[in-house]
Amino acid sequence: METIGLIAGKSDFPLLFAKAAKSKGIKVVAVGIEGETKPEIERLVDKFYWVRLGELSRVLEIFKSEGIKRAVMAGGITKSRIFNEALKIDGLMKSILVKALDKKDDTLLSMITSTLKSAGVELLDSTLFLEDLLPDEGALTKEKPALAQEEDIKFGSRIAKEVAGLDIGLSIFVKDKAVIAVEDIEGTDAMIRRGGRLAGPGGVVIKVARPKQNMKFDIPVIGPQTIRSMAEVKANCLAIEAKKTLIIDKEETVALADNNGISMMAVKI
Fold this sequence. Notes:
Layout: E1 3-8, H1 13-23, E2 27-33, E3 47-51, H2 56-65, E4 70-74, H3 81-84, H4 91-99, H5 105-118, E5 122-123, E6 138-139, H6 147-165, E7 171-175, E8 178-182, H7 188-199, E9 204-207, E10 221-222, H8 224-233, E11 237-241, E12 246-247, H9 250-259, E13 263-267
Parallel strand pairs: 1-2, 1-4, 2-3, 4-5, 9-11, 10-12, 11-13
Antiparallel strand pairs: 6-13, 7-8, 7-9
Helix pairs in contact: 7-8, 8-9
């Protein structure tokens, strides 16, 4: 039986991967990050280890001892922890932070990917076994976007793509062809709440991939919590990039959107 390593971050994304791998008969050895990874993952994998944020050398040691040659990175981290916590970062991670030209997600994750490769671990696409959760172009809910919302999607998609290309964030909040809020280090849900506070009811949330998205890490993800955040501020349309955005708990997400009068659309950008 093949064994794949899993570097598990926050959200249900790592849990979905573990379940999908198990259904394929794949053995999974997972590394969870304290304060980020959901403990439920322990019962979904064959072996599990906890590490602290910044213990990259420990991850490599675990993978070496377990004979891991291929791995997946699923789920992000709370990046603000890097700036506002006294983390015990190991020497290997410190060297990456020192050598990095900047602290953009894509920069740091690309360097971590290269470090894994140098240690003999190939990082695979994070959507492995989960391709059916990347929707094709088209409406996802019973509720279809109104004409004004379609215009906001057309207006905002290009801008969202440019923002994503700058590695600032993958989501924006639009209303009446005006950008109200842009996702930054705070994350999508906080951006949605901020946009709703600023613009009031009726906003459109757009989530896209980077122009040259590496599907091995930090792909755009939405789920039930995204819809709950939108319902909280009465935003009523969500557009995601088709075949690039992963939907966690797709049935629940779409049902929540329908129940709250939120239209969901996968668009080609």
